Amino acid sequence: MRHAMLALPLLLLACNTSNTVVPASVGGGPGQPGFQQVITNGWLNSKANVTDVREDTVSGDLKRVQVAVYSDQLNSQNFSYRFEWFDGNGMAVQGVAQAWQSRQIKPKETILLTAVAPSPKATQWQLKLLDTNHPLDQ
Amino acid sequence: MRTIVTLSLVSLSALAACSTPATYKDSQGNDLVVSLDQPNIQDFNQAADKLVQGMMTSGVLERAPRKPALMGISRIVNDTSSAFDTDQLTKKVRVALLNTGKIEVTNTIGLDGKVEDPMAKGVQDMKDFESGRSNQTPDLPDYTLTAKILENRAAAGGTRQVSYIFQMSLTDTRSGRGVWEGEETITKQGTKNAIGF
Asked: What ipTM was reported for this prediction?
C-alpha cells in the first residue's frame, strides 16, 4: 500500500501533461471573471500557477486577457503556453496567436501573460500551459 | 568470424539508435527546432502575434478615417545574415490584421509600382476604363506598413546568443506621420541548435 502511495506522485510527475485555465462561468467581478484550473501536472503548477485573470476590450470589440502566473520554485524555470480562442458556439477561431510560446519565470516571481482575441467573433478563451524542462526529460 | 558478425550487428544497432526518421510536426507546437543561426518558424509566429496585439491594444485603428481602413504594404527589409523571404513575417501580420476586421490590404497598389496581384490590377484598370473612372483617383491606402528585421549576436565562452529584432511602423498617409510603432525582440542562447522550447 505504502509503495503504491509513493508510486502515484512519481507517475504523475513522469507525465509531461498540460494544465488548462478557463474563465469561470459564474462569479468574479467586472473585468475579473474568475477562473478554473484543470491541473494534470503538479510540477508544472508549482512553477506556473495562475493566480489572477483579467479581461477587457481593445480596439472596440476585441477581447483582451491578462493572466498572472506565479512560480513557487527556488530556481528560474521555463514553461510554454498558448491561448486558444472560441466563438459563441464553442467553435475554434484560428489565429497566429495560437502558437506555443516560451517564457522564463524567476523564483517566487509573478509574470503576466496577455493575449488579444484574433477576431471579434472570438469571445471565449482557454490557456494551456506546458512544461519546457521537465525534470525527468533531462 | 562470430566476433566480426557480432560487432557488425552492434554497430548497426548503434547507428539505428542514432538516426531519427522524419515525422510531421505541428507548426505551432513547442517541439520544433530552435536554431542559433537563423530565425525559426516559431520566431515569426511570436513576432507577428506580439506586433499585431500591440497594434490592436494601441487602438490606433479606432481613429481610422473609415472602417475597415485600407493599408498598403511598403518597404520590408531583412537586415539579418539569413536569407529568408520577409513574407514569413508580413503574411502572418496581414492574415492576423484581416481577421480582426479592422483593416484590409490593397493588392493593386504596391511599392515602386510592384503590385501584389497584377491580374487584379489589370481587371481593376479595365473596369475603371469601361465605367469612365480612369481619370479618377484610385482607392488609396489610409495607412502604409513598413518593417525591418535586425540581428544582434553575442558570445561568451562557448555560449552563443542571437537576437532577432522585428520592427514595424504604421504611417497615416493623410499626414505622413507614424501613428503606431512596434518592436519585438526574440533572443536565443545556447551552444548548439536544439529541438523543443
From this structure: 0.81
